Amino acid sequence: MTSFVYNLGRKAGHVFWKGHWWYKSLFGTEEEALQAEYIVGRQIDGEIYQQYPQETNKNLQDFVNSIGFRLIAKLKDKKRLFHFRILSNIEFNAFALPGGFIYCTQALLELCQMNQDEIAFVLAHEIAHVVKKHAFKRVLMNASLNILSNLGKTSSALGSITKQTIQKMLRSGYSQDQESEADRFAVQMMIVAGYNPNSSICFLKKLKKNESNEKSISFYLSSHPAFNDRIETIGEMIKRKTQSAYKIDKVKKTIH
After folding, report:
1. 256 falls within a domain
2. Distance of alpha carbon 131 from alpha carbon 124, whole angstroms
3. Per-residue pLDDT tens for 144-192?
4. Domain limits at 151?
5. For the range 162-167, what are the long-range contacts, defined as Cβ-Cβ under 8 Å and sequence gap of 24 or more?
6. Quick check: is 250 in a domain?
7. What distance in Å separates the CA atoms of residue 241 and residue 55, rounded to the nearest whole number?
8. Is residue 164 part of a domain?
9. Model pLDDT for residues 46-67, shown as the tens digit of each residue
């Protein structure tokens, strides 16, 4: 992870170190912190674009965008500009980058059988990791402030972020508390946006059935809490929240 952050700084050059992005993310204004998130996310996003095959089906991209934008329309804080990407990958995977870059694989969409409610849960869960700053904290927490403070202070040629270092960053995962918080946020967001929250359970049950499938051996499954725990917790949350949530005007209600 140290080499990943070091190369990240070198790749971005003066944009990173001259603006002290890491310092502003921790101690700057809200606007500066959001800008720092975006700079980091955009850099990693660019590397992923170069190193991983992207899905080129425009209709599929439009379909995912329509779900993603419907979800983020219900966010109270609209200062982030979200982007939704589809990777042509056989693994069941989805992840979020700092700043609002949300990824899912074609295989995961196929597992959902293009059910918009199930896809909404996947996207909402990853949106939560961005909104709650889990994605950005994952970058910061995997490197020392000493290294961060010296990013870019080299005259060497610009470095690059390898596929291995990107995978290492994603494989580090989140804490169980963060994953549970993302699940709760996702279910609430689904309700507010008018999606069926019970589809979150349907989706998790599909993943559970495919747990022994070679495709499912991915970061997405290895970094999340046990399926039974997630299903039980989400089911209890839906029972508590669904009835009252649907009585509120979905157009006016937002979450944060």
Report:
1. no
2. 10
3. 333 343 444 433 333 455 666 666 666 667 888 899 999 999 999 999 9
4. 2-245
5. 162/7, 162/51, 163/51, 163/52, 165/1, 165/3, 165/4, 165/7, 166/4, 166/44, 166/47, 166/48, 166/51, 167/219
6. no
7. 36
8. yes
9. 888 888 899 999 999 999 999 9
Tell me how far apart the alpha carbons of residues 167 and 1 are, in angstroms, rounded to a whole number. 10
Q: Is residue 252 part of a domain?
A: no
How many domains does one find in the chain? 1
